[in-house]
């Protein structure tokens, strides 16, 4: 149970997202990298959410809890794609992502659960600055809770 294991399992799941009538992701990266290529679109890049507070806390004497947020950047179009076309490409994506994540809420048992008291995830639609470019897509913020068996002593 680590952030790395979570990202790797999410990458496997995100590759199965089916936003019909739009194509499934061509490439899913479990690690942010500097550049993305239009030839790989739609493409998903994931990592810890920049600027979000991540929390590790202890409770119960033998468990710690790691609450963190991931960003899933779902790129669908380049900067020069007409807005109406780019917007149409993102419309089926949130529900398709929700379908996959709700069916795997514990990622096969490697985490306690996805989501928090506000919901499974939040998302925004628009331009995403990445590397030396700007692309159209969605940014998902996905809360994750892990419980880790751990000795906590004085």
Structural description of this entry:
- The chain is of the alpha+beta class and 154 residues long.
- It has a single domain (3-149), classed as Alpha-Beta Plaits.
- It is built from 3 helices and 7 strands; from the N terminus they run αββββααβββ.
- The protein has helices at residues 3-14, 83-90, 93-102; strands at 27-29, 43-48, 55-59, 63-78, 113-114, 122-130, 133-149.
- Strands 1, 2, 3, 4, 5, 6 and 7 form a 7-stranded mixed β-sheet that branches.
- The longest helix has 12 residues, at 3-14.
- The protein is elongated.
- The mean pLDDT is 90.
Give structural attributes.
154 residues; alpha+beta; Alpha-Beta Plaits; seven-stranded mixed sheet; 3 helices
